Amino acid sequence: MTDTTEHAAAAPLPHVARLEFRDLRAALVAGWQDFRRAPQFGLFFSAVYALIGLGFIVFHAGTVMWTFAMSLGFPLFAPFAAVGLYEVSRRLERGGAMDWYKVLGIVIAEKDRQIPWMGAIIVIYVLFWSFLAHMIFALFMGISNLTNISTSYEAFLTPSGLTMIAVELGVGAILAFVLFSLTVTSLPHLLDKEVDFVTAMLLSFKVVTTNFVVMMTWAIVVAVLTLIAMVPLFLGLLVVLPILGHATWHLYRRALI
Question: pTM of this prediction?
Answer without folding.
Answer: 0.86
